[in-house]
From TrEMBL:
This is Uncharacterized protein. Keywords: NADP, Oxidoreductase. The keyword Oxidoreductase applies. The keyword DNA repair does not apply.
Length: 250
């Protein structure tokens, strides 16, 4: 296999300046892709990613990934710069802590805008610029299949349930153009945001949910994104790949 299997490919990643999105951007760039990362507000984090990859192959775009106007800006600037989109990863998301009683309308609308509306219309606007053989990789959560889940995840997981259904049908819709659609469903992953506000006791409990007894690393999630962008996954479509060290099985 080529040392740079994605040479000549263009990837667009929302929420690509931090956490899992950042790890994916760096991995795809290592594999040879040109990468466009979207960020909402932290320009310095985005510019660090651009610097790491090199400005000739990486572009950072500030935009609201939960609005159609922001999505149109992202797609236009990507195509203006690189001419096409081969890999689309709607990774931007918000994860409110809200059960039914504590969900406000504002919270609901914001969460669905970023987590559902954004990926939906990003796929719509990007698809005309995606050649045959392109990949869409949606992002869910292993909490969708985790039986001990607690009520405070209600709002967040409801949006990811929508993503998993979107994945199932988009694989048929965009499959007509030769575009493969799949979803990755991470378990607990050690990003800065994940660690914020969690006690050592809670972290140990979360780690113990996996038989491997550890929290995942962003790079371990990025490895699976890399597999789904490669020719080795050319016969995979409409699947939800749960990357969680065995936290959920089946």
């Amino acid at each position: 296999m080529s040392a740079q299997p994605l040479a000549g490919k263009v990837a667009l990643i929302t929420g690509g300046s931090k956490g899992i999105g950042r790890a994916v951007a760096l991995r795809l760039a290592k594999d040879g892709a040109s990468v466009v990362i979207n960020y909402s507000s932290d320009a310095s984090a985005a510019e660090e990613v651009v610097k790491s990859i090199g400005s000739e192959r990486c572009l950072a775009i500030q935009a609201d990934a939960g609005s159609v106007s922001g999505i149109e800006k992202l797609v236009k600037e990507t195509v203006d710069r690189f001419g096409k989109i081969d890999i689309l990863i709607p990774n931007a998301g918000v994860a409110p802590n809200a059960d039914l009683e504590h969900t406000t309308e504002e919270m609901f609308d914001r969460t669905y805008n970023v987590n559902v509306k954004g990926p939906y219309f990003l796929c719509q606007k990007a698809a005309p610029h995606m050649p045959e053989g392109s990949r869409v990789i949606l992002v869910s959560t292993s909490l969708c299949a985790f039986s001990p889940i607690t009520p405070n995840y209600l709002l967040y997981v409801s949006t990811k349930g929508a993503i998993e259904q979107m994945n199932r049908i988009l694989a048929k819709d965009l499959g007509r153009k030769g575009i493969r659609v799949n979803a990755i469903s991470p378990g607990p992953t050690g990003t800065d945001l994940f660690y914020t506000g969690k006690s050592e006791e809670l972290l140990a409990r979360l780690a113990s949910a996996s038989p491997l007894n550890k929290i995942g690393d962003p790079e371990e999630i990025a490895d699976v994104f890399a597999i789904l962008t490669s020719q080795d996954s050319r016969w995979v479509a409409g699947q939800v790949i749960r990357v969680n060290g065995g936290m959920t099985v089946g």
